[in-house]
Design a protein that fits this description.
Layout lengths: L2 H6 L2 H9 L5 H9 L6 H13 L3 H8 L8 H6 L5 H4 L11 H18 L12 H11 L4 H30 L1
Length: 173
C-alpha cells in the first residue's frame, strides 16, 4: 500500500489496515484519526505517540493478538488478518531442535501462568535459542516490569509491520 492509498481509505478500511500492525483498539483509532500521512517517518512518529498514549489495558489488548512463540498451530489460526505483514516473524523457530521447542513451550506456559499474558518479543531475525534465553531471563521479572518490557517489544513489532506493509508496495511502483 502506498501512502496515497492509505490516506484514501475509508475510516473503516484504515482501521482494518492499522489493526494488522497492532490490535490495541485505542492505538488503531489514533492512527486512523491522524491521517493523512505524507511520509513513513510521520507514520512512525504517530505510531510511537499513539502507543505512548495507551494504558495498560490497551497494551494487554495488543498482546492478545500474538501467538505464543513457537506455537505453530496458534500462528496459523490466531488473527489470520496479520498473515501478510507478520509472515516470517517467528521463522527462527523453524530451525529449532525438538529440545528447544519443548523448552520454549514449557517456559511460555510458566510465563503465562505467572504474568497472565504471553511472552512478547520482537522475534524477527532471532533464533529459537535466543528467544528461549530471553524468555528465561525475563521470567523472574515482576509483572509490572514485564508489561513495560513487552510494551517496548510490541512497539518494535508494530513499527516493523507498518514499515513492511508500506515500503514493499512502494518499491514495486
Amino acid at each position: 500500500m502506498t501512502l496515497n492509498e492509505l490516506n484514501a481509505l475509508t475510516p473503516s478500511q484504515a482501521y482494518q489496515y492499522f489493526e494488522q500492525a497492532c490490535a490495541a483498539k485505542n492505538w488503531v483509532s489514533q492512527m486512523v484519526e491522524a491521517r493523512p500521512y505524507y511520509s513513513l517517518t510521520r507514520i512512525e512518529t504517530q505510531a510511537k505517540l499513539a502507543w505512548k498514549a495507551c494504558n495498560n489495558d490497551d497494551i494487554l489488548e495488543a498482546f492478545t493478538a500474538h501467538p505464543m512463540i513457537g506455537d505453530v498451530d496458534s500462528l496459523r489460526a490466531k488473527f489470520a488478518n496479520t498473515k501478510a505483514i507478520a509472515s516470517g516473524e517467528q521463522s527462527g523457530t523453524a530451525q529449532a531442535s525438538e529440545e528447544t521447542l519443548l523448552a520454549l513451550k514449557k517456559a511460555n506456559e510458566d510465563y503465562l501462568k505467572k504474568h497472565g499474558f504471553i511472552f512478547i518479543i520482537c522475534a524477527t531475525g532471532l533464533s529459537a535459542d535466543t528467544m528461549l534465553n530471553a524468555l528465561l531471563a525475563r521470567l523472574p521479572n515482576s509483572t509490572d516490569e514485564e508489561i513495560t518490557i513487552a510494551a517496548g517489544e510490541q512497539l518494535k513489532i508494530t513499527l516493523l509491520r507498518l514499515n513492511k506493509a508500506l515500503t514493499e508496495e512502494e518499491k514495486s511502483e
